[in-house]
């Protein structure tokens, strides 16, 4: 129940040193990795089986249904297509 489906605030204190050590030499912080719930992943996978690419309208609808941003949906589909390409 503690899973996050969004990004942590970029103004979170104490992370600046960690970001600089991880390659963020200009002080920019990386966003926290999204922890998708099992329900979100299941729905994303089912949608991916039907459509390898989503149009803007379908992406908006899926993002609203899963309570994710459109960018998170777009990135997930890009990563999933690359995973499929590696498997083939």
From TrEMBL:
Domain Homeobox: from-to ranges: 27-87
GO CC, one annotated term: nucleus
Keyword Chaperone belongs to the record: no
DNA-binding region: 29-88
UniProt cross-references to InterPro entries, sorted A to Z: HD, HD_metazoa, Homeobox_CS, Homeobox_TF, Homeodomain-like_sf
Domain of life: Eukaryota
SUPFAM superfamilies given in the database record: Homeodomain-like
Residue ranges of the region described as Disordered: 1-36
Protein name: VENT1 protein
